Amino acid sequence: MTQYVYFFGGGKADGNKDMKDLLGGKGAGLAEMTNAGLPVPPGFTVTTAACNLFVSRGGSLPREVDEEIEKNAGRLETLMGKRLGDGTDPLLVSVRSGAKFSMPGMMDTILNLGLNDRSVNGLKDKTGNGRFAKDSYRRFIQMYGNVVLGIDKDRFEHELSAVKKARKAKADVDLDEKALDDVIERYKGVVKKETGKPFPQDPREQLGGARDAVFRSWTNPRAVTYRKLNDIPHDLGTAVNVQSMVFGNMGDSSATGVGFTRNPSTGAKEFYGEFLQNAQGEDVVAGIRTPRPIAELQTVMPKAYAQLRDITTRLERHYKDVQDFEFTIQDNTLYMLQTRNGKRTGVAAVHIAVDLVDEGILKPAEAVGKVDPQSLDQLLHPIFDPVARGKAEIAAKGLPASPGAATGAVVFTADDAVAWSQKGKRVVLVRMETVPDDIHGMSVAQGILTATGGMTSHAAVVGRQMGKPSVVGCGALDIDAKAKSLAVAGKRLKEGDSISIDGSTGEVILKELPTSPSEVLQVVAGTLKADRSPLYKKFERLLGWADEVRRLGVRANADIPRDAKVAFAFGARGIGLCRTEHMFFAEDRLPYVVKMILSAARGQRGLDVTRRLKERIADAKGEHAAALRKELAKAQKEYGKAIADYTGALARLLPMQRADFAGLFEEMRGTPVTIRTLDPPLHEFLPKREELMVRIATLTAKGEKRNAREIKRLSSLLRGVEELHEFNPMLGHRGCRLGITYPEITRMQARAIFEAARNVSKKGIAVKPEIMIPLVGHVNELVAQKKLVLETAAEVLGKGSGVEYLVGTMIEVPRGALTADEVAKEADFFSFGTNDLTQMGFGLSRDDAGRFLTQYLEQGLLEKDPFVSLDASGVGQLVEIGVRKGRAAKPGLKIGVCGEHGGDPASIRFFHGAGLDYVSCSPYRVPIARLAAAQAQLEKPSGD
Ligand code: ADP
Ligand code: MG
Ligand code: MG
């Protein structure tokens, strides 16, 4: 029989830390701590399997599960020696949600369950503290009313404020027992009015209601959004933890708090956290009262503090990771309520992983697994320009919740943040405090600034996780969200005004500041010495360990020497894709590119016609030869100018390309450099048709005679544009199809590559050019292009140049993948072009998909954007087929990937599994790819 309920208490638990799938993170942690003999209030966990049953049955549980819960409730009552709802010494419990992955603020906890009109007096008698008992009851009605019965929080807050006002009380704690009796009556009135029924008095009914609410919350829109944003599957389900209560609100010898064993923002090894005396549950994170730093607990309750330090240090060693813990002190006795691996910034993650190795807690390979590859992005975040920053006036200071520099326009709501950023503006989201409903706005903002809340408030936690610079609890801000304005330091800002925040110091500056690259970037760029950056050194060590683990090679997509240099510094060993055409856009060469394009058709034809005639003349005799010579003269006259334009432009481009390639070879120091021949449709290099028409019309209007020359030039350009027009350019005249119709272009590019290789090699620098033919769907396309490349190589290199090169192809047309066995016979290597492969495999135009793809994601038709993360089950098959057939025809065939997916951790995992040799990604993603490749190997080891 399946077990749906797991008990913990009395020194042992049914579950343990490895059962997160079933018990959720919280439940597994409570079980593990119980087993370790730590002071954990006993209770039981209803499993995620029960949640899935609940959801699939449309909101109910089978009777056996209900009975199992009832049995465990009875067991808890026996262990505690108290009964729920008892009139003399009642048992109270909390009902806490807990999925496998923690979802901050997504599902609300209910405290003090079991209180009713009778048991509240029992609690009062037992503790001799009427104020405490009544306060607990009113909190319970409020939480239950809101979370389970769905009554707006404001309805309760309104009553509480009314009573406070009537009693002239400033804070909640100033209300005495009588006042709280008044609050309770008013609250019960609210419940009656809102639901038509009295507040439920039966503790078993309360328990069932709370449990169902937790299960229901799994499918609430906030939780669904969060899961989507974080790639958490929707069928994991949440567990419910029912746990006997301990009280942090029993007076000044009681407290509640949260903390981390290390600073989650910087990674520093310091005890870190906050607490509130005489408080309960979420008071600390709710941002209602401003909590005190945990260090002060040492003076307030030295014994409990020492015990807390001791326990959490042990937990860190036990879990081999930073712990994020929650505790409550009831009358000087410490209880642990939660522990989990702490979320942290990318910067902190690197420091912590390396420190844990140095402290002997982790082995290097284990440390590699502790850092989320994506979070390395944060180390590459900009910081403020130090000079501008030094001069800037600090208007206010809040808590430095998530590091990094953010600058942009002030917006006051999440919706405005989205609207402004859709218009291409950088925004900083300014709120009193953030709530889960703000997530969409937070994710598009440069940074987040709040007026209330501590380092563990929603804005802080979520900001860190998203890697958003965040400053929280900045009390000096006077925000009027309705009027969309903000007063601070004697100034008033309205929506759209500039602001800058420094998430590393908490400082707020009322103007736009220039930002400069991160510390790591500065070392890479050579403007900061590695010795002066401890962060960079740890980053290097961590990635060095990753390199020892990983099987996949990591290359970069780089077109120009400057990018290649960055890529190499970030650890790329090779270029997986140099898009030659990117160099064509440079100002000094675009005119020749345009000339080449406009003359290509006639020029190439002229070359072909005259060459054929010359061949025939060589074989002909007498009169026949004379006739042919005449014909040749005629052809030369007809095509002469086009040929001269075409070959002339190519001749001008040759040395430029040669210099580019030489630069790449030098920067890459003997690692392979894959250069792709011309790929995009030619019209991309020409002006837009409409734009030309407008320019011609304007010039004509201004004086047709005076502008005759320019009008003529533009008109011929316009004719060229119109001739090149295609209905479906992505499936049109591009890729190897260009090189097949205009072989001179391929020849010129091949010549530039080989001449560069020869020249660099002569300097004593090793070179490994790999010439890559794009868009091959039929092996004959490759055969034709390869012939040109090999002929050119023979011409340029001759014999004994010592330059070794490969000629391979991209696999990016589905037919190319399906016939990979045929293609492989002609190819020295494959490189999957997963952008086009996705475009053609999915039949999704990359340039047009934006219009509807977001809808697909919102409606859950697709889990991820297939252009960001490879569609493993569909397009992935084309990759697998390509690999299998390619290697079957040519064992050991070198295979890589050069699409955007090469820098996406989930896709990298797939490529590792598919047996590729390397991934290639943008230079800034190289560190992420190195780490992700290592983690893929740790998860699923494979030989090389
Ligand atoms: P979250 O997932 O939002 O952190 P929790 O279930 O951890 O929610 O509950 C929030 C807080 O409620 C805890 O940190 C703790 O302070 C309080 N709490 C939960 N259960 C108990 C309990 N049994 N006794 C005392 N306080 C509790
Ligand atoms: Mg919660
Ligand atoms: Mg918690």
Short key terms for the protein model shown above:
944 residues; alpha/beta; eight-stranded mixed β-sheet; eight-stranded parallel barrel; 35 helices; 16% strand; elongated; binds adenosine-5'-diphosphate; binds magnesium ion
Structural class by SSE content:
alpha/beta
Which strand order spans the largest sheet, edge to edge or round the barrel?
Answer: 15-25-24-17-18-19-20-16
Number of strands: 34
Largest sheet composition: 8 strands, mixed
Averaged pLDDT: 92
Q: Report how far apart the termini are.
A: 45 Å
Q: How much is the radius of gyration in Å?
A: 34 Å
* Stretches with pLDDT under 50, minimum 5 residues: none
- What helical percentage do the residues reach? 40-55%
In terms of DSSP E residues, the strand content is 15-25%
Which compounds are bound in this model?
adenosine-5'-diphosphate, magnesium ion
Q: How does the overall form come out from the CA principal axes?
A: elongated
Please tally the helical runs, counting DSSP H or I stretches of 4 or more residues.
Answer: 35
Structure description:
By secondary structure, the protein is of the alpha/beta class. 48% of the residues lie in helices and 16% in strands. The protein contains 35 helices and 34 strands. The strands form seven sheets. Strands 15-25-24-17-18-19-20-16 form an eight-stranded mixed β-sheet. Helix 23 packs across helix 27 (743-762), helix 24 (689-703) runs antiparallel to helix 25 and helix 27 crosses helix 28 (779-797). The mean pLDDT is 92. Adenosine-5'-diphosphate (ADP) binds next to strand 6, strand 12 and strand 13. Adenosine-5'-diphosphate binds next to strand 6, strand 12 and strand 13.
